Every structure is written in C-alpha cells, then in structure tokens.
Amino acid sequence: MTAETTELSLPSRIDTVATAAALVAEFLSRSGITEDAAFGIDMAVREAVTNAVVHGNRKDENKTVDVTLKSSPDAVEISVHDQGAGFNPEDVPDPTAEENILKASGRGIFFMRSFMDEVNWLIRPGGGTTVRMLKRR
Amino acid sequence: MAELNINERQAGDVTVLDMSGKITIGEGSVALRTAVRRLLEEGKKRILLNLAGVSYIDSSGIGELVSSYTAINKDGGQLKLLNLTQKLQDLLTITKLLTVFDVYENEPEALNSYK
After folding, report:
1. ipTM for the complex?
2. Residue B115: inside a domain, yes or no?
3. Which of B13, B22, B78, B102 is the most exposed place for a label (fewest CB within 10 A)?
4. pTM as predicted
C-alpha cells in the first residue's frame, strides 16, 4: 500500500456533491478500503461537501470547495475546505435529542461523526473552514 | 435518467409510491417533496412509500422523509414506509427515526395497517 494524495477544486454548486462523491469513490477503490468503510466515507464526504457548498460558500460559484484526499497504510484522511464565515460545531444541536427528531435538517454533521473515526474543524475567521475527517483501516 | 424515479399506483384508498434511485440533496429530495405535496393537494392522504429501489439517501433525503411525514400528519393523513434497505434502516436507527416511522416489510401488511 503506497501513500497517495489527490487534490480537487470544485465549484460551489449542488451537483458538486455527486461529482466529489464519484471522485472519492475512485480514490477509495484505488486505496483498497473495505466496502462497508467506503459506504460511510462516501456518506461523510457528501455531507461535508454539501455543508461547504450550502452553508460555507452559500452556493456562490465564485468560491470553490477544495477537497484533499490522503491515503496511507493506516488510514484515509479527507479534508473539505470552504471559503465561508465559519461556525462553531459545538453550537450544532444534537439531531437525536427528542425535541429535534422531527426537524427536517441538521443531521449532516451527525452522519460525518457517526461514520468517521475522527472529525475536526479548523476555522479561520474570514478565511474559511476546513473539516478534516479520518477513517482508520 | 432522473436521480429518483417515482411511480404512483392506487391500492384501495392508499396511494403507493414505488421509488427507485437516490434521495439526495437537489433533484431527488425535490422530487419526493413535489410528489407528496401534489398527493396532499389531490386529497390523497394515505401514502405508502415503497423504498425497495432506493439505493442511497443522504441527510437531505432523510430530512425530506421527515418533512413529508409531518406535512401528511398535519393534514390528517398517514405516511408509512415499506421495504427499507438495510442501509436506510441503519440510518433511521442511528437518527432514532425508526421509532417515529411506521415501517413494514411486506405490502399487504402495510396496506392493512391503514384500516
């Protein structure tokens, strides 16, 4: 297993979510990840890119969503960077709390945390947000 | 080919939507929303979503299922789910939505539950 890094720069459009997912699927097939892990990574990537397009860049096509994929013998690491104002992940309500269960939105970060082993955010005020997600082999 | 295909049929007073494809942000979620809103406008309030052919759903799609459920309930109707894939069942379990939705594995049983 050799290390591989791929970088993608994609427009802030909804169809970018499917494009990113397809490119990540190709990357994962080269990296020899299990089918179960690939499902979870795919889910997490779609949610992260959706957040970057919709909440981060607010669908401004002048802004890009930059995705970095790294594969090593130990793990797959995916970073998604947007050019938005940033947010505090601790402020995002728990979608499984009784009062939130019937809400129509707010499950994306929950899925990212559910399917990846590590998820953390690097937020630079005015300089965008990077979410880094790690899945161990 | 559309991201989500929805075929409508009537089984007594229950409207069954046979769905295949993906319920994801954008086209798939919008297609589901449009179909459910149209049925409500037509006065069809007993709706069964057959999800056997749904290969993928994201948080937006799950949000749309929840919106459909609350819209139909508010209108005095009932939304039930049929033939969840294992993956969808897992997603509804971790989000605690499996306790909210009425879920069936066979159609006659699902249809009888409306009586």
Report:
1. 0.90
2. no
3. B13
4. 0.93
